[in-house]
């Protein structure tokens, strides 16, 4: 086969005239290879161009239309063997309220408060014993309190003297009870209150065990005298006694407000009873 050279400036194939020529030039970019040469494409589109000039619609055959579902569309049809879940389809009963969630456990709060105030009590006792024992009372805050060392064989505020070993056993029982109860604590207020009581009981129990005469009969160091020296204005006490009083008052206040140690309140318990009653009636 001999290929003749194309003259300069000439098209490599015959260019049809009119709109058929335009189709012949554009068609190779869109038609498949089997269409043939551009001239054939022009002949193919020539009738269509004529119809377009007469204002008629041109229909293009894009081949057969597939009726198969597209793979890109998700198949939302349920399988034939699927078993419906009545619990998932059942609407929630709006008449039964949800049970309140319990807060976190507060064991760490109890022991953190107890350790801090036990340490404060121990340090202050050692300081006053080293610096004030055997000396005259020291006036503080214009006579609001007096600092002096008193060895107390009794309970808080110098009460129940002569019952040292009984008080030591009571303090030991209080410490054990608070430790056991702390596992169920979910209220921060109760945790702080019991932590203060635990610190006070442990602080005075430390004196009962380690201070003279020892053997659960040691005398507790008191050093704060309110309003007058020698306990004449109110009483003589220490940090441990104060912690017991403040912690006990906080627990009483929370109880009066309906706040329980497990983080619930009186309203929560009433709500739980209402929920249980509604569930029983529905069953």
Description:
The protein is elongated. α1 (18-26) packs across α2, α4 (107-132) packs parallel to α6 and α6 runs antiparallel to α7 (239-256). The chain has a four-stranded antiparallel β-sheet with strand order 1-2-3-4. Mean pLDDT is 74; it is low at 48-61. It has helices at residues 18-26, 38-53, 86-89, 107-132, 164-181, 188-210, 239-256, 266-282; strands at 138-140, 145-152, 220-226, 236-237. The chain has 283 residues and is an alpha+beta fold. β1 and β2 form a beta hairpin. The termini are far apart. It contains eight helices and four strands; from the N terminus they run ααααββααββαα. Helices cover 46% and strands 7% of the residues.
What are its keywords?
46% helix, 7% strand, 4 strands, alpha+beta, 283 residues, 4-stranded antiparallel β-sheet
């Amino acid at each position: 086969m001999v290929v003749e050279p194309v003259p300069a400036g000439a098209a490599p194939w015959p260019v049809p005239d009119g709109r058929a020529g335009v189709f012949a030039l554009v068609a190779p970019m869109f038609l498949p290879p089997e269409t043939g040469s551009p001239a054939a494409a022009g002949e193919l589109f020539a009738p269509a161009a004529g119809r377009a000039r007469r204002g008629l619609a041109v229909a293009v055959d894009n081949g057969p239309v597939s009726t198969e579902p597209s793979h890109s569309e998700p198949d939302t049809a349920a399988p034939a063997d699927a078993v419906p879940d009545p619990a998932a389809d059942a609407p929630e009963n709006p008449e039964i309220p949800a049970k309140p969630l319990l807060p976190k456990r507060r064991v760490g709060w109890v022991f953190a408060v107890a350790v801090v105030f036990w340490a404060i009590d121990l340090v202050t006792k050692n300081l006053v014993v080293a610096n004030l024992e055997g000396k005259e009372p020291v006036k503080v805050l214009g006579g609001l309190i007096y600092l002096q060392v008193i060895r107390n064989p009794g309970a808080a505020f110098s009460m129940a003297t002569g019952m040292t070993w009984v008080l030591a056993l009571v303090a030991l029982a209080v410490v054990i009870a608070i430790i056991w109860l702390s596992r169920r604590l979910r209220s921060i207020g109760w945790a702080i209150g019991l932590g203060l009581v635990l610190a006070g009981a442990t602080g005075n129990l430390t004196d009962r065990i380690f201070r003279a005469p020892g053997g659960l009969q040691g005398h507790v160091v008191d050093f704060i005298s309110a309003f007058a020296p020698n306990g004449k204005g109110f009483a003589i006490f220490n940090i441990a006694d104060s912690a017991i009083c403040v912690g006990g008052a906080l627990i009483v206040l929370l109880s009066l407000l309906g706040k329980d140690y497990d983080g619930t309140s009186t309203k929560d318990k009433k709500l739980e009873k209402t929920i249980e009653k509604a569930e029983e009636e529905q069953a």
